[in-house]
Amino acid sequence: MPLPSRLVMILVLGCLAFHPSGAARGQEGPTRPTVSSATLQAVKDQVVILRMQDGTEVTCRVLQVAGERVVVARLPGNDVVELPIMAVFSVRLLSAGVPLAVAPVGREEEALARARTPGKPRHLALNLGVAPALNIDVDVGLFHGFLNGSLVFPIATQGQWLAFSAGLGIGIPVSPRQPNLKLDIFAMVAPMRLDKDTWVGIGVGLGLHYTWNNGLTLGFTVPILGYAVHAGGSQYTSSGDGAAYFYLAGATGLPLGFIGYRF
Fold first, then answer.
1. What pLDDT was estimated at residue 103?
2. What is the structure's pLDDT at 16?
């Protein structure tokens, strides 16, 4: 075979021999880093897709760039991991609407933060109670107190029946997530006049109330345990009547349910 023909054959065989390996190298993906720590710092607290040197992709939120490593929260799941910056080939920033769909946990944390955000401090409330009554309560920290006067009994009986109550105690937040929802435990005094007989109920009660950030408040109270003293009148009573009249005084004098506005 002439020399030029041999050279052509060698060139053709060489191209065929090197072409597959060249294609394989093209399929291996990125081989050198193209992302700096400054680039990752620029997308801190954002949801991005990191393409790694091996061709894999990581959807995450960038938390911190420290030296030669980047700390991210993988999505979904929010697993916090460290990745070497040298292993990151490219960064793609997701749109603002994607993180909520990709990371529902972040949305729940945001809602929790809003629920925990305190509103304007509100302490004094003016309420309308059930049965129709006028109620004033004070709620400061753990302290809770109230005054309540029945409206319906004096009106319906032309002043022959009167019922009032007052209470002092504590208001305990039911949950850290709902600091405005409080369980009230209080000592109570409930004077009650039925015609010519006067009773004074003394005991303890429970209540629950919630105050929205706009000032609307809603709650209820109930008598739990106590005894009523017959303070005067013509009716003969026995010692066993004290417990029954305590609950009657509580039912007529307490705000069994109330709604109002807290200033």
1. 42
2. 52
At residue 26, the pLDDT reads 42
Identify the CA nearest to 169 among candidates 133, 208, 201: 208
Q: How far apart are CA 83 and CA 48, in angstroms?
A: 14
Q: Contact, 167 vs 183, CB < 8 A?
A: no
CA distance 132 to 116: 34
Which tokens hold the place of 163? 């019922």
What is the secondary structure of the chain as a DSSP string? --HHHHHHHHHHHHHHHHHHHHHHHHHT---S----HHHHHHTTTSEEEEEETTS-EEEEEEEEEETTEEEEEETTTTEEEEEEGGGEEEEEEPPTTHHHHH-HHHHHHHHHHHHHS--S---EEEEEEETTEEEEEEEETTEEEEEEEESHHHHHTTTSEEEEEEEEEEEEEEETTEEEEEEEEEEEEEEEEETTEEEEEEEEEEEEEEE-TTSEEEEEEEEEEEEEEEEE-S----TTHHHHHHHHHHHHHS-SEEEEEE-
- The per-residue pLDDT for 23 is 42
pTM for the full model? 0.57
Q: Percentage of residues in the chain with pLDDT exceeding 70?
A: 76
With a cut of 90, say whether residue 66 has pLDDT above it. no
Read off the pLDDT of residues 169-194 as tens digits, 9 standing for 90 and up: 999 999 888 889 999 999 999 999 99
Interatomic CA distance for residues 218 and 210, integer angstroms: 5
* CA gyration radius, the chain: 38
Residue, of 159 and 99, whose pLDDT is higher:
159
